[in-house]
Each structure stands twice: as structure tokens, then as C-alpha cells.
Amino acid sequence: MTTFDDHLDPGGRTTREPSTAASDHQTRHREVKTSSSRLPSGEEKRRIVQAMFDRIAARYQLLNTIMTFGLDRGWRRRVVEALELEPGARVVDIGSGTGDICNELERHGYRAIGADISWGMLFHGQQRSRTPSGRYSVLQADASALPLAASSVDGVTSAFALRNFSDLQGTLVEAARVLRPQGRICLLEVSTPSNAILRLCHRIYFTKVVPALGALLSDRSAYQYLPRSVAYLPEPRELMKIIFDSGFDLVERHVITGGVVQLFAARRNSARDPQDPNAA
Ligand SMILES: C[S@@+](CC[C@H](N)C(=O)[O-])C[C@H]1O[C@@H](n2cnc3c(N)ncnc32)[C@H](O)[C@@H]1O
After folding, report:
1. Contact by Cβ (8 Å): 241, 12
2. Domain residue extents for the chain
3. Measured between alpha carbons, how far is residue 48 from residues 24, 38, 118, 122 in Å?
4. pLDDT tens track for 2-61
5. Does domain 2-268 have CATH number 3.40.50.620?
6. Burial (CB count <10 Å: 0-12, 13-18, 19+), residue 83
7. For the segment 201-213, what is each residue's pLDDT rounded down to a tens digit?
8. Contacts 24+ apart (CB under 8 A), 50-53
9. Which residue CA neighbors atom 24 of ligand 1 most closely?
């Protein structure tokens, strides 16, 4: 089930129901408080995240399918559908991992480039890539410093990578740099359901079942980190503002599957310089 949630007006202000916003805010504070040990940041985070994904790359897709009951495929399809670009458009997927979004992009007739810091993730994705046009292109690169020319792509996508980036705003500014004016960006991330019962079930599943499954089938510490990494995500309205300030307009947020995941979509604003968020 998908519900239109909120959008930013041209001045970068959100329009949203106050009750929902308050409940999100409280949820986020609880999440941050329950993280007992320190989460890494900056260069340390980058190194840890890269090594972790290299380690879990071989079984990453299998675990994803099991843990989401196969729903992840539909979520990624939603990202690609939300792009609404012309066939043949060039799209870079940042934090592309094993390439599920890239494969979906190619299936939709786009030309996909996957960019990721983890060589292991890129490698395992390429091994399994089955798209009508063959393999999509890959770049081993930090999403905050892409080896792509300014205005060289029509779209940017990302799935479940925002909370892993060590410089979120820098990454969004970089996305705006490589996007052509009026290009589209679509970002998928985990979220917390606003319904109290769903939220409780989701919390138990995400903090207890997911790490247990990860320990059983892959890497214990990586799948313990997964629920903790949610603390890196700004709350939805704040994240929409960051997207806007990074050089985008028409910022929208949609909640999917009862709020388990969220999709942000926006357009590259040709009137503003992403290096200077205060410019008119
Ligand atoms: C949870 S995985 C998501 C992979 C894929 N998008 C998907 O939907 O399955 C996050 C990915 O982000 C990548 N990543 C983390 N920090 C990055 C950075 N600074 N630049 C590029 N990729 C990064 C990781 O290596 C990992 O492959």
C-alpha cells in the first residue's frame, strides 16, 4: 500500500500533518537513544562500511530477499517507475551494491551506471547481472565524488544507501552536479511505520529477527549494524529539506508498505547552484 505523505513547497517548507510529524520525531529519538555503542563517522565510517559490504557481498541478495519476504523487488521497481524519464535516459545508481536497481533500470529501457565503494558488491552484482542489454556499467567510486562530468546524467537513483554514506549532504550535492537541469532523483530508504502496532512489530523484526537471521546466514556484526544504522537517517522532513538545499525542487516523500520503507523523489533545480544552497 502506498500513501502520498508530504511535499516541500517552492520555498523549501514542508506541508505535513502535525500529528504524524510529532510521532516520527519521537520514534527517531527513541531509536537514537537505544544505540548503546558509538556509531562511526567520516572517514572511519567509510572504511568500516566498505569493508563490511565487501564481507557480506556474496550472500547480500539472498539475505535481502529472505528478510523482506521478496518485497524488495517491488520497492526497487517503484524507484525506477518514479523516475519518469524518456527511454534510453542515462541513470547513475549511487550505492548500487549488487545492482538490483541497475538491472531494474535496464529492464525499463534506461542506460544504467552503478557506483559503489565496495568492489565486492559490484563484482558479485556483475556476476549475476541478467539484463536484456547485457551488463550495466559500474564505477568503483565514492558517491560524494563521482568520476562523471557535470550535467552528464538524466537521473540518479539510490536504494538503502543513504544511511551508509559518510557525507549525506555532500553526496546529494554531488548528485545535483552530475544531473542535467530538470533531471530526476529517486531515493529509497527504510522507514518507521506510524501505526503503533505495525511500529512495534517492525521494531521487533528489525532489531531482533534481522540480526539473528544475519548471524545465521551471513555476518553477525554486519546485521547488528543494520538496525543501528537507522540512527544516521535524518527524520523525513529534515531529509526533504537537505534534498531541497542540495539543489533540488518538487521534493516529495511517499511511504510504502505501511511505512516500512520511504521513497523520496525530486527534480534537479536548474535555477539554483547546489554549491551555494542559499542562492536564489
Ligand atoms: C545497503 S547496501 C544497498 C545496495 C543496493 N542499493 C540495494 O538496493 O541492494 C548500501 C550500499 O552502499 C554502498 N556505499 C556506502 N557508502 C558509500 C559511498 N560513500 N559511496 C558509494 N557507495 C557507498 C555500500 O558499499 C553498499 O553497497
Report:
1. yes
2. 2-268
3. 28, 13, 11, 17
4. 333 556 654 555 544 333 333 333 333 333 333 446 899 999 999 999 999 999 999 999
5. no
6. buried
7. 999 998 999 999 9
8. 50/117, 50/118, 52/219, 52/221, 52/222, 52/225, 53/97, 53/116, 53/117, 53/118, 53/120, 53/121, 53/164
9. 95
* Start-to-end C-alpha separation, the chain: 37
Phi, psi at 97, each rounded to 5°: 55, -130
- Model confidence pTM above 0.85: yes
Protein residues whose CB sits closer than 6 Å to any atom of ligand 1: 46, 49-50, 53, 94-97, 100-101, 115-118, 121, 142-144, 159-161, 164-166
Sign, CA dihedral 55-58-59-62, equals positive
**Nearest residue by C-alpha to atom 14 in ligand 1:** 95
Q: Which triple of cell numbers denotes residue 153?
A: 546524467
